[in-house]
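Hey L., structure's done. Input below.
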Amino acid sequence: MKKSIIYLFCLGLTISLSAQSIQNEVVSSSGASSSSTSFNIDYTVGEPVIELTSSTSFTLSQGFHQPSLYVTAIEDIELSDISCYPNPVNDNLVVEIPSSYTDAFVYTIYDLNGKILANETIYSGSSIIDMKSFAVGNYLLQVTETSSGKSFQSKILKIK
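Output:
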């Protein structure tokens, strides 16, 4: 019996020491603020409610409120009209860049550890990358336009 009590005490102590604390932060898609002469209300869609107060005329929930909401966006920087084939590749990988691009490009091939294995300047049209010396495995190809910095990425599988 004593062993059971000691075990339960130790288990409870372990759980209480490893419990997570609640952060006063919400990642949400929407929210707003409203105010009048007598009150100010802020709300965030999806906020956890930690207290609820009500009367005959209104219900008020108190949760974690964000005083301001910032929307950020990243411009699409991919060059989706560049292609590479065949994938999986045996010996030669072909990179096709449309003729509408007049600037130079640099292709870079990385292994999965981020080590640069090959890079070279190429131009629009078809370029052939010799992959005969590469070991069988997965690689990352990045083709970057030198003037704008826009890039195209693709996973490459080398077989045989």
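The longest strand covers residues 137-145. Residues 25-72 form one domain.

-- N.
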